[in-house]
Amino acid sequence: MKLRLLVIVCLLFGMFGPVVHAQDDMMEDPCLAPMEENGEMMEAPDNSHISFEIILPNPRGDRSFIDSAAAGAERAIAELGVEGVIIETQGVQEHDAAVRRAIQDEPNIVITIAVDAVIIEEVAVEFPDQKFGAQETFFFPAPPDLENLALFNILTHENSYLAGMAAGMLTRTGTVGAVGGIDAPGINLFIVGFEEGVKSVCEDCQTVRSYVGDFSDPVTAKEQALALFEQGADILYQVAGRSGEGVLQAASETGNFAIGVDSNQDHLFPGTILVSAMKRVDNAVFSFVESVVNDTYESGTTTVGLAEGFAGLSWDEGICSRTFDEYGPEDLVAQLPDVRAAIAEAREAILAGELEVTNALEMAG
């Protein structure tokens, strides 16, 4: 409900509407207005008796999904006053051992990010007295009913749809695409939504896609992106973790465009990245730790997305990225007010239940 009210307020103040022009002094984009500074720092409570350990699926430094998870852990330590350990693994081959190593320290909660469902179920059953919080772990057809396992899933099909609308309205060639880390339901959740968004505003647009096969191989991702650009694509949505930086680099080097993912990546290649489809993994991690601190930990699955503010665009108020407005080419920048107005309308339709975006996870289940 809060998000719907926020969108309405944004519309009233011209955040998304066609009145936002550089030459128009009557209305201002609130995202460009100076932000008020509070200046007050709240002292963190002393919860040093509470601890958590978080297992990251790869090392930090992707400036996307993993870094967002780590930021959520760091925020929990700073704001909640708990003890926390961030464990960086080198990939799937280390996940099982890393989880088991964390359990030996007996933290109040072990948090995992994108660890395989088989591993999660196995350790949760084996260690019933250990609380687990798993984010980005998908069970098919349904998760196990375990009192020590809490799952947090962030749905990204709807904000990906909005990003697809931006691509469909701003493409010059009529061909756009996506590069995924692997061909899996969790990644296709982004891509299918994105492609539907493209088609909603550009029925004749062609969509192309490829999969790297890995989330930490930017070289291969760059090669695939270059191949898709050669096929006529001029905008690519990267959903590939650290590999995705190869997509962004390829777009920059060829004078094409890209859409970032998970974190705000607009500033990485200013004028190349149109917008980023945000996935607030940091908020999910913080929520796990907070539930232990507040003694509100509950097993089962919590599913959130656009409506709850866990998914959105880097253009949205709160992030307020206007990097592309400043550095993008004039012909595309001139279209942004109309693009944002269309996206605002679609967002309202999604939140009202009038527009349904395909959920690839439901298709897989």
Q: What fraction of residues sit in β-strands?
A: 15-25%
Strand segment tally: 12
CATH homologous superfamily designation of the largest domain: Response regulator
Number of helices: 13
SSE arrangement, N to C? HEHEHEHEEHEHEHEHEEHEEHHHH
The span between the termini is 29 Å
Largest sheet geometry: 6 strands, parallel
Shape: globular
Keywords for this structure?
alpha/beta, 18% strand, 2 domains, Rossmann fold, 6-stranded mixed beta sheet, disordered N terminus, 6-stranded parallel beta sheet, 365 residues
Describe the structure.
The protein is α/β, with parallel strands linked by helices and about 375 residues long. It folds into 2 domains: about 50-155 and about 280-305, 3-Layer(aba) Sandwich (Rossmann fold); about 155-280 and about 320-365, Rossmann fold (3-Layer(aba) Sandwich), CATH 3.40.50.2300. Helix content is about 40%, strand content about 20%. The protein contains 13 helices and 12 strands. It has helices spanning about 1-10, 65-80, 95-105, 115-125, 155-170, 185-200, 220-230, 245-255, 280-295, 325, 330-335, 335-350, 360-365, and strands spanning about 50-55, 85-90, 110-115, 130-135, 150-155, 175-180, 205-210, 235-240, 255-260, 275-280, 300-305, 310-315. The strands form 2 sheets. A 6-stranded parallel beta sheet has the order 2-1-3-4-5-11, with helices on both faces. The chain has a 6-stranded mixed beta sheet with strand order 7-6-8-9-10-12, sandwiched between helices. Strand 3, helix 4 (about 115-125) and strand 4 form a beta-alpha-beta unit. Helix 5 (about 155-170) packs antiparallel against helix 12 and helix 7 crosses helix 8 (about 245-255). The chain is globular and about 60 Å long.
